[in-house]
Write a structure and sequence with these properties.
8 helices; DNA binding; Deoxyribonuclease I, Chain A; Endo/exonuclease/phosphatase; six-stranded mixed sheet; metal-binding; Endo/exonu/phosph_ase_sf
């Protein structure tokens, strides 16, 4: 079972690339982030024509998450996170696909630091952690996939100095991510590449793609039962280099039956 996290940076702008990816790779599940589209603008017909069912949680112009499943309709379990009722950002959706509980996550960026956006980021991670504990208590195969906007380690970035002041690399961001892992989650890509130096994002600016000046912010976290089924993980990097591509590459983990 290949489960993909893919920040598409605009579902309308990136639809040809997404359909191309589905056709070529035939992943079982794709968790999308940054749809930048209201619910009614989601291209359900195109997704279904490609052989995938979908659930989505959109927002006009910003954020937005979805879960696609090959040959079936994901069974939605939850949208949004508790703990901040006034929060209207569309950043979390959770569904069950073929017995696996899967979440698509778009964690806040948090820049500039310090400031209210960074404070919101940290509160949001705390809310995710609270729900993650509940998911672990279910003792099921669970995958938390998404753009976490956290660079966990120094070897997850091309240049520590270049990103030192960014919200993605602040000690508080890293500590919150480590605390989440400490609940009992397995970072699939890190497990596969323990030495790091594997990127999932390359900025559009300053020739970052051409210089391979990237970093790792797209993560798939596995519950213990899912981790027992872990087979492989990777980044489908070449899709970042295609015409009008997202600035993220599809990042994936594969589970055994």
């Amino acid at each position: 079972m290949k489960i993909v996290s893919y920040n598409v940076n605009g579902i309308k702008a990136r639809l040809p690339r997404l359909i191309e990816y589905l056709d070529e790779q035939q992943p079982d599940v794709v968790c999308l982030q940054e749809l930048k589209s209201a619910d009614e603008g989601f291209p359900e017909a195109d997704i279904r024509a490609a052989g995938y069912g979908a659930v989505w949680h959109g927002q006009k112009g910003f954020n937005g998450v979805a879960i696609l499943a090959k040959g079936t309709d994901p069974v939605e379990r939850k949208r949004g996170l508790a703990g901040e009722p006034e929060d209207e950002h569309s950043r979390y959706i959770e569904a069950e696909v073929n017995g696996v509980v899967i979440a698509s996550i778009y964690l806040p960026n948090g820049n500039p630091v310090p400031g209210p956006k960074f404070d919101y980021k940290l509160r949001w991670i705390d809310r995710l952690a609270a729900h993650a504990r509940d998911l672990l208590a279910e003792e099921r195969a669970v995958v938390l996939a998404g753009d976490y906007n956290v660079i966990p380690n120094d070897d997850d970035v091309y240049s520590v100095k270049a990103m030192a002041d960014d919200a993605l690399m602040q000690p508080e961001s890293r500590q919150a991510y480590r605390a989440l892992l400490a609940q009992g989650w397995t970072d699939a890509l890190r497990t596969r590449f323990p030495a790091g130096r594997v990127w999932t994002f390359w900025d559009y600016q300053a020739g970052a793609w051409q210089r391979d000046a990237g970093f790792r912010i797209d993560h798939l976290l596995l519950s213990p039962i899912a981790a027992d089924r872990f087979a492989d993980a990777g980044v489908d990097k070449d899709y970042r280099g295609r015409e009008k591509a997202s600035d993220h590459a599809p990042t994936w983990a594969r589970l055994r039956p």
